[in-house]
Request: fold
Amino acid sequence: MGENRDEKSQALVQAIDRRGGVARRKDLVALGFTTWDFHQGEAQGLLRAVARGHYALPHANPADIWLANHQARRTCLSKVADLGLWLLVEPRQTHVAAAHGRPVAGCLVHRVSGGQSMVNILRQCVQCGTQLEALVVLESAVVKKKCTIGRLRREFSGREDTAGRAIVAMIDPQSMSITETCGRYHLRQAGYNVQGQAFIKDAGHLDLLVEGVLGIETDGEKYHNTPEGWAEDLRRDTMYVLNGIWRLRIPAAVVLYHPELMLRWVEQALAMIRSK
Reply:
């Protein structure tokens, strides 16, 4: 009996954790948890009531507890990181969902009643973000297998969904990182033919291949700044040369936040290639 009780308490903790550390009681009740479960969790010090109809874990973000006291919760671009999705930049204002629809200091309020699915949140990102910000979020949902392109096509099939359909059409499920997604977007907007994850014999896959002749690797320190990563990069550099592929290594920060510099380098490199 005690084991079952502990398992239920742990399941309750996991359910709250999946919601960012703070959850509405009504959402937890919809999952099958009872008043007894809440009492047991509080008695064990696993959770606490922090606002009317809200429970939080000990490590919960104080900002989320503050929002709970205003009967609001993070959503849209302010929620995607909790969902494990890519986020280009933190929004200037915290986006929150609130059934009351009233202003909340420092926040952009979405009037939302009831729970929200991931697709609901993706739709909000399309409405609030730039085309690139929304693409990053939607593409990561597909790449991480949290949503399918088919599901997104159905979701954005209405007359008012022109912007959403345009973003869905840009999604490449083979993308390996937010940097690759942003690089591909900026290059295509500049009019270049771009292939993601292009396979080169004996070298592996390039992040991006521009106009079929210029490879681009969008390097981040996490995967390249190690002895093993450095050795593999040197080997691949040799293979690219032997296969006649020019290549640029562009830091992730440049691709993400200074795309104009990336585009200038690409233009210069292509001019050199064409002059040969």
Notes: Residues 178-274 form a domain with the Endonuclease; Chain A fold (CATH 3.40.960.10). The CA atoms of residues 202 and 268 lie 27 Å apart.
